[in-house]
């Protein structure tokens, strides 16, 4: 059903059984898939592609120009997958040419009210961003991630699969997979409860815990083999996630060496 007060550009492509509520504005270069519902007062600007079965609530702004001061009106894009719930007053901006020119949101996500997704962000599938969560530009969110209310992620941060971010946390660095982060932004162990709810076996969860206890001095190839064998038995399924984890460990190890060298130098000078 299309409400009589909705304003829809002639170039808009609407799928089957799309519902558009009162006073919605859908601009040029927008496509909306089957069975998607727009409640009243939703604004969608293009170029934006919205998949099937999404539900977008009142006063959401989807596909607006980004707030990056370098943006000069270049044609950029927003791509939204299927079966997402986008609640009241959510803002989602298109990408910039300084990145890939695309902001992407996967499928089966819940974006609660007042969530902000900035330019060039990438959100995977099955993630939850609670009320007021804020993503700066170029932030990547994996699959099955939960970000608590009023959390904020600094630009270019990557938050990996199955991680849990406590309410009010400020994320200033990458978050590895399976980690639970406290509201002070520091790691609080493995997201064991979340993994249980998603069907991870007790054995797998234990292997994840053991892998995170491996010290940086050990062979990273052994860590990679351990994760591939016990955590992600299907070849290729977790290559990206494993590599991210190992890179984070390597960076941490390198940082420790730099700090140690600096301390030794200060000791020698004194």
Name a few traits of the molecule.
270 residues, alpha/beta, UDP N-Acetylglucosamine Acyltransferase, domain 1, nine-stranded parallel sheet
Could you provide a short overview of the structure?
Helix content is 22%, strand content 24%. The protein is an alpha/beta fold.
Widest beta sheet: strand line-up: 3-6-9-12-15-18-21-24-26-27
Rounded mean pLDDT is 86
The number of strands is 27
As a whole number of angstroms, the C-alpha radius of gyration is 21 Å
Describe the main β-sheet briefly. 10 strands, mixed
Shape: globular
User: What gap, in angstroms, lies between the N and C termini?
Assistant: 77 Å
Helices, by number, come to 4
What is the domain total for the residues? 2
Structural class: alpha/beta
Architecture blueprint of SSEs:
Elements: E1 7-8, E2 13-14, E3 19-20, E4 25-26, E5 30-32, E6 37-38, E7 43-44, E8 48-50, E9 55-56, E10 61-64, E11 77-80, E12 85-86, E13 91-93, E14 102-105, E15 110-111, E16 116-117, E17 122-123, E18 128-129, E19 134-135, E20 140-141, E21 146-147, E22 152-153, E23 158-159, E24 164-165, E25 170-171, E26 179-181, E27 187-190, H1 192-197, H2 202-212, H3 220-231, H4 239-269
Parallel strand pairs: 1-4, 2-5, 3-6, 4-7, 5-8, 6-9, 7-10, 8-11, 9-12, 10-13, 11-14, 12-15, 13-16, 14-17, 15-18, 16-19, 17-20, 18-21, 19-22, 20-23, 21-24, 22-25, 24-26
Antiparallel strand pairs: 26-27
Helix pairs in contact: 2-3, 3-4
């Amino acid at each position: 059903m299309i409400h009589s007060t909705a304003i829809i550009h002639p170039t808009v492509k609407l799928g089957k059984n799309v519902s558009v509520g009162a006073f919605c504005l859908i601009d040029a270069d927008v496509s909306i898939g089957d069975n998607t519902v727009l409640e009243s007062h939703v604004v969608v600007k293009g170029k934006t592609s919205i998949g099937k079965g999404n539900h977008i609530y009142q006063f959401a702004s989807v596909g607006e120009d980004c707030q990056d001061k370098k943006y000069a009106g270049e044609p950029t894009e927003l791509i939204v997958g299927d079966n997402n719930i986008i609640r009241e007053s959510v803002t989602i901006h298109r990408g910039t040419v300084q990145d890939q020119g695309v902001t992407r949101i996967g499928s089966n996500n819940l974006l609660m009210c007042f969530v902000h997704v900035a330019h060039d962000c990438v959100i995977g599938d099955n993630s939850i961003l609670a009320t007021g969560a804020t993503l700066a530009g170029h932030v990547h969110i994996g699959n099955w991630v939960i970000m608590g209310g009023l959390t904020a992620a600094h630009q270019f941060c990557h938050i990996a699969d199955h991680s849990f971010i406590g309410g009010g946390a400020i994320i200033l660095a990458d978050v590895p997979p399976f980690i639970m982060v406290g509201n002070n932004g520091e790691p609080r162990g493995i997201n064991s409860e979340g993994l249980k709810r998603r069907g991870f076996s007790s054995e797998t969860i234990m292997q994840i815990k053991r892998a995170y206890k491996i010290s940086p001095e050990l062979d990273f190839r052994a860590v990679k083999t351990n994760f591939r064998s016990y955590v992600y038995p299907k070849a290729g399924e977790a290559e990206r996630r494993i590599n991210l984890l190992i890179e984070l460990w390597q960076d941490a190890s390198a940082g420790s060496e730099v700090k140690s060298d600096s301390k030794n130098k200060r000791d020698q000078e004194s």
